[in-house]
Design brief:
Layout (H helix, E strand, L loop, with lengths): L1 H10 L2 E7 L5 E6 L1 H5 L2 H15 L5 H6 L18 E5 H15 L3 E4 L12 E3 L7 E9 L3 H11 L4 E10 L5 E2 L2 E8 H4 L2
Parallel strand pairs: 3-4, 3-6, 6-7, 7-9
Antiparallel strand pairs: 1-2, 4-5, 8-9
Helix pairs in contact: 3-5
């Protein structure tokens, strides 16, 4: 992860100041992972690591980083194999698209609200069914607002969410709304 952390810092994703997050909460840091998504090499690196986590394939560096590797990724412990990838928002959807392509799994794109024109859909792309296990991909996890929006829509389809996989977590939560949270980097590892 050291290579990813250094690359994200070099790209300038760490911002200090006073920021309002999606949840409405204030933060002294803002992690602009969308900036890194615009860099094809960083997008490749992040999506490869997230895809490996979804498939349960740990890198050596992940294993060495923690005495309890399940805190980062579900290495072979009880988990549902993902059948599709879902996300929401400008940071999540491009990252989820790259992961979907790597894993060759269908992509679910969730809108913040239904369109007022066209078909008026809130779920775009693949529509999951009761037999699907959805892996949620997002750029940053702070308070779970995006995950809750996704969960609300996925619950309407009777599909299950197997986990939420993020590049950076700003939380110590291992679960949110009953969903396991897996991360590549903790915020304190990248803050200057």
């Amino acid at each position: 992860m050291k290579q990813l952390i250094e690359a994200l810092k070099k790209e300038g994703v760490v911002n200090k100041g006073s920021f309002t997050l999606t949840s409405g909460e204030l933060s002294d840091y803002y992690f602009d992972v969308k900036k890194a998504i615009g860099n094809p090499e960083l997008l490749e690196m992040m999506s490869s690591l997230l895809a490996a986590g979804i498939r349960g394939k740990a890198t050596r560096e992940h294993r060495e980083r923690s005495s309890n590797p399940t805190e980062q990724w579900p290495y072979g412990h009880r988990r549902m194999m993902a059948t599709c990838i879902a996300s929401i928002g400008f940071g999540g959807i491009p990252l989820a698209t790259a992961v979907s392509l790597k894993l060759k799994l269908p992509l679910i794109m969730i809108r913040n609200s239904a369109k007022e024109y066209g078909l008026g859909k809130i779920i775009e792309g693949y529509i999951p069914g009761p037999k699907d296990n959805v892996a949620v991909v997002d750029d940053v996890f702070s308070f779970g607002t995006s995950l809750e929006q996704i969960l609300k829509q996925i619950n309407k389809t009777s599909a299950k969410i197997s986990g939420c996989y993020v590049v950076i977590t700003c939380s110590d939560k291992k679960m949110h709304a009953g969903i396991p949270i897996y991360h590549l980097i903790k915020a304190e590892e990248i803050e200057d």
